[in-house]
Write a structure and sequence with these properties.
single chain, 185 residues, Beta-Lactamase, 2 domains, 7 helices
Length: 185
């Protein structure tokens, strides 16, 4: 069989289907290497699987996680809400004690009583957003201070100008009266 026929056969069939053991190894490698946290829970929201990225994100070990309620570690009832809604849910949460903010996509594993959460660490984004709002608030405060100082300065200039104008008027009125008296003599 010519080489191009074999490729054509594979292409028309779609991707080459490896055996299930090979597929399981590939999936396992992906789950272990992804930068996103992966958490599998049963219908009671007890943790059944957790990958290294999740453990790193939430500063915990697999031994302390397995069999425990997910809410205990993620500080959210998002799995309960996803189950109640029948499957899919996207949530943004934070755990201030761990200095972690995350976005999580939750979905049902078809044919199983399992639910999966893919956790994306957005702590740096949230910190940058917080820094931006603090900088913005500081800038607005500083602008208000400058405006207040300029108003005080303008008021002081107006006061001084008013005083000197009044003094000048008094002096000129006195001079005019002196000249008038002198001219009458």
């Amino acid at each position: 069989m010519p080489r191009s026929e074999g490729l054509e056969d594979r292409t028309t069939q779609g991707l080459i289907q490896p055996d299930s053991q090979e597929t399981a190894r590939h999936i396992s490698a992906i789950l272990e290497q992804t930068p996103n946290g992966v958490l599998l829970v049963d219908k009671e929201t007890r943790i059944r699987y957790v990958n290294p990225s999740f453990r790193e994100m939430f500063h915990c070990h697999a031994e302390e996680l397995l069999g425990q309620p997910a809410a205990k570690f993620i500080h959210s009832d998002c799995f309960e809400r996803a189950i109640a809604q029948g499957g899919k849910l996207m949530v943004k949460e934070s755990v201030p004690e761990l200095n972690v903010s995350y976005r999580v996509g939750l979905f049902t594993i078809e044919g199983e009583d399992l639910y999966c959460g893919i956790f994306i660490d957005i702590s740096e984004e949230e910190e940058a957003r917080k820094h931006y709002y603090e900088l913005r608030a500081q800038t607005l405060e500083r602008a208000q201070e400058v405006i207040s100082r300029q108003m005080k300065t303008a008021q002081e200039i107006a006061r001084l100008l008013g005083e000197t104008t009044a003094e000048t008027k008094v002096l000129l009125v006195k001079l005019m009266s002196l000249f008038e008296e002198e001219s009458k003599k």
